[in-house]
Structure formats: structure tokens, C-alpha cells
Amino acid sequence: MSEVKAAGQAVEIAETFLRKYHTYVRPLRAKLEDGRWLVKADVGALAVVIAKITIDASDGRITDYERP
Asked: What's the predicted TM-score (pTM) here?
């Protein structure tokens, strides 16, 4: 993959990943911090469940995924 320069690109990567595992995905925010995009998304269809995805800004790889 190529460098991720915009929040929209980071959200798209995170959303594509999350849709493999969840039917409901609502991106909430994307923030660039120390060369990594931190994306939060609600994946709970009936209740709010926040998933956190970390994406390496230099190559677009997902480096971490957390879901409560």
C-alpha cells in the first residue's frame, strides 16, 4: 500500500477492515499521531461498541485492532 496522508484514506482502510467482521460500522474519528492514524468506529448495531484501529501512515498497514 501507499502512504496515508488524509483522514479520509485512514477511515476507508479501517472501514474496509471492519466490514469483514461487522455488519454495522460507523466511523467516529481519525487522528494522526506519531506517524500512525488512530481510527475509532462504532461497530455495535444495538449498543455503542467502540473499535480502535491503528494504521501505519507510511504504508497503510493495520498495526493494531482493539474491540471491547
From this structure: 0.92
Q: Are 64 and 13 in contact (CB under 8 A)?
A: no
Q: Which residue has the cell 501507499?
A: 2
Nearest to 57 by CA among 32, 28, 29, 27: 32
User: For domain 7-66, which architecture applies?
Assistant: Roll (3.10)
Contact call for residues 51 and 41 (beta carbons, < 8 A): yes
pLDDT in tens, 18-63: 999 999 999 999 999 999 999 999 999 999 999 999 999 999 999 9
17 phi/psi in degrees, rounded to 5:
-65, -50
Distance separating alpha carbons of residues 4 and 32, to the nearest angstrom: 10
Q: Which three cell numbers stand for residue 32?
A: 494522526
- The conformation of residue 46, written as its DSSP 8-state character, comes to S
Domain extent listing, the chain: 7-66
